[in-house]
Amino acid sequence: MDENSILPIIYDATVTAAEVLKKRHLLEIENVGEGWLTKRHWPNRCFPEGTKLKVIIVRDSNLERWLVSKIISIDGKPYSRHDYRQFSGLDERYVRLGQKPSRGPDYGFQPTKKNFLTNWEKESFVDIYSYSESHEIIPNHPESKFSGTVIGFNNFVGWQGFIWCKDINSLVYVRHDIGRKEGSIVAGAKIEFFLGTSLDNRNELQFYATDWNSTANRGNAPEPALTFDFEDINDSKEMINQILSDKTQFVLITSLIKKEKKRYASDEIIKSLATKFPNHPMMILPWPQFGLDKRNRNNSAKSSAGRFSHPLIKNYLSCAVVLFPLEDGGEEE
Amino acid sequence: MRELTEKELNSCKISISQQVHELLIEERNEWLILGDETGGLTEFGGQKNHRPSRMLWVAIPPKTTLPSLHPMYHGQDAEWFEYETHKALQNLNNSPEVGCFIFTHEEGLSPGELKSEVKKGVEKKKIVSPFKSKLAQKEHLLMWQFTLPLVLEWVASHSKGTQNVSIYIERVDPLVPGEMPLAPLMQEFVAGLQTRISWSRLKFKEHSILAKNPLEHPWLGYTDALGHLFNEIISEKDQNVIDSLKQKVIAIPYRQTSLNGTIRQILKSTSNPIVFLKSISDIDSADIDDYLRPFFLGAIREARNSLNSSEWQDLLKHFKNTAENIEGQHATNLILSNIDIDSTMSKFHNNYHKYEFLKSVLGSSNHIGQTDTANRCKAYIDELIDEGLILSKSEILKLNNLSGGANDNQFDFSHIIDDFELDEDNIIDWNEETRTYLGAQALSRALRNNYDDLDIAWEIEDKLLSIDQQTDEEFRRRYVLRSELLLQQGELFEAQRALEIDFPARINKPDNQLHISDKYYLATLLKCYALNGYTEEFKEVCELIELNEHHPSQRIAYWFCRWAQEIAQTDNELFRTCINHLLSLKDIPFFQKEAPGIILACELIDLNKRGLIEEEHESFLQNVLDNSEVFANEWVSNNPPNEDDWLAPLNFNYR
What we know:
Chain A has four helices and 18 strands. Chain A has helices at 114-123, 233-244, 266-276, 311-316, and strands spanning 11-19, 24-29, 33-37, 52-60, 65-74, 77-78, 146-156, 160-164, 172-175, 180-182, 190-199, 205-214, 227-229, 251-256, 282-284, 290-292, 306-308, 317-323. Chain A has three domains: 3-83, CATH 2.40.50.140; 92-214, CATH 2.40.50.140; 227-323, no CATH class. The model of chain A is unreliable at 1-6 (pLDDT under 50). The termini of chain A are far apart. Chain A is elongated, with a radius of gyration of 31 Å. Chain B is α/β, with parallel strands linked by helices. Among the domains of chain B are: 6-106 and 140-254, Nucleotidyltransferase, domain 5 (2-Layer Sandwich); 272-391, no CATH class. In chain B, the strands form two sheets. Chain B has a six-stranded mixed β-sheet with strand order 7-6-1-2-3-8. A two-stranded antiparallel sheet of chain B has the order 4-5. In chain B, strand 4 and strand 5 (122-128) form a beta hairpin. The longest helix of chain B is centred in the first third of the chain and has 22 residues, at 6-27. Chain B is globular, with a radius of gyration of 28 Å. In chain B, 42% of the residues are buried.
């Protein structure tokens, strides 16, 4: 059903209290009772008690309260959001004009830049402010499949993120366990989706993506590398050669520090491997990394004053060497 | 030579981590305490979040081995680790010996001054620190240092023999892996508490920050998983394990003022048993419930066992001095609960000291519903009297009052003196013991409600009320009892008037809401509101209702539900909370026998018959009776719940 086909009822309301910190007003709505003008409609100012409003309201079924979805007039004067802010055609939560851009790649989403906002406002045709309640699929565009880019904003890998789509004047929430058809939520990924509305955890209306496909696929959780204990090398030589016959493979040779066991140093391991696997390229694994402690600016020491990235693991690891397949032209002796 | 891709390098890190993890588990012979936090910790800067910040600890005993988690485990990454989180929660749930602790931020700021600034019409709060060091202001450090000592206390009281302890916390900037920011804290508590047997047996090995990606310890991720217990969205397959785990986890508020003040002090004072035990009566009831009860029961036992005869006498004198206030009573109950009477009695060489000890235990057993302990105390006191112990007249009165209280709790009213007569001329001469004795006679009679019981109870209470030399609290108690007597007589309006008008006028303090914090006052007030169908002040009273696991919380919840039903206000959160609270009390031993159990069972049956609870509770009543002495069984069989009155066994303020 098209929401716009029904003329909404306009109610008279009076401001009875303003909660400045929460950016909301408590209203007495004629013939209805108590209602709220929340920060989504906070027109950048605080109304004194007794201010007369004409409003359109909606029922928040979760909290069982009435909320203003649109202000028609304030003290008899017609109200338009355009009177109060720039880029009023965009969701104000995501307009950051003049602010410092956040660090990291923006994936085309530049809410601090005027040009970007002007274009976004011009091109977007799906308006968050024309909705006032939750819809599984928005009624105005039930068949439309949108496409956009997952951006870095509130992105928690493997769980949730936000999509920027130039057709929509707000960001679109996407969550791993809601409407996923394929792919992962990774910043920068292209994503196709249908559009619904829901309340976020601050009880504000937002768009969310459903039936979405993402071009990114993180696959399963990473697996450990094929690894052999240095002391077992002799017994495993044949198997290692077999593995390394595949040019895309490598093996990891480790020597751990165990009680009552010999501890092998890296040069000892390299030397031995060079004999057992001649001409095979190899490298000492640069991990756990050692880094100088730079927190104390007065520390002029250039060495020794530092830490390993993973000191507990380092306590148990004597050495780890990566053994690669023979390079083209390389030959076993 | 080709280089490793990022993915290949990660696979190497995972492999090495897994090998080291195996070694760590193989070589481990210690308690392992792991810590992590969730949330932005913005509350420490004065900014409340939708999702509150929490400090999470997991304490794993030396002989327990949990399955290792994936080295890259991150609970928030549902795409990779949803199943791992589910298994982790299951593993914690299946290991009852593992301690799980969640401190949820309720109060506390970073050191510094909270300043507000308004930018673009929006007020923002910010802490301005007096310290130059970022580290000193680190909220994480506050959370660690104020909660870890409690976890250590828990470990100390759950350790057997000499045991090693290692503590690891997940890294957070600017602290880097390998750092030991807990060293000063360890020094403060470990050195300070060496005089205690339990702490002297703990040998501290490691205490440092661990790295993540990959996690340095295979079980560090369990703290992360624990943080999912309070997720707003819980999948169907996790629901059961989470419900079960919530029962086991010690989940309490983080109140920095308490943790950094009284609780820190009291933990230090455990090194001096008598000072420690005496100081419990200074702790407020919220801190008793949130910190003392979950963490200090072992310390109390240890301190109690270490007292000699003269320290015991000192403590008993302290009980007497603090018996007038509610904190004192709670402290005494906490100290004496589950005490080994025989071994403690053997410390006293004087029969009168033995009597004083038994009298204290008898009093606290009455309060906490340990009827078997109360009965043993009474039997031991009788033995002492048989052996020749002579008690003064006032002491005999006190003893009768205590014994009467114990008997009332079992519906044993045989102690009521039937040929009782009031000596009217001497009201002014009634001393404290006489007033208490007469008050107890009135109470027992009102609970029994035979023939002229109510008349005599009214007569006594009327006399007691006429005495002017009483504190506001004493007057409040008198008016609560008067109101209950009026309710019993069907004078519903007068009963409400006694609480709301007569009492405030008597003490000349017109605001009766000041007294709602007294749970007995609140219970009776709600009963009046319910029975009168009072339609005012519903919202205001809703905000003042607090529930706990003690009597008369069940009466408060029950009468609130009745009131809400009476005035058609059942569609609200507090109503649902009260119903759930009543149902949850069934699991608490105090409510599984004798009067507290019968009160709860009848209330549940009644609410079921009124259509407010789905489940029937007749079988719960039967369980309560099976757990109770013969008197309670006889009483309920003579006054069974029935269609006309499902609360039939309950008279006066049991109703």
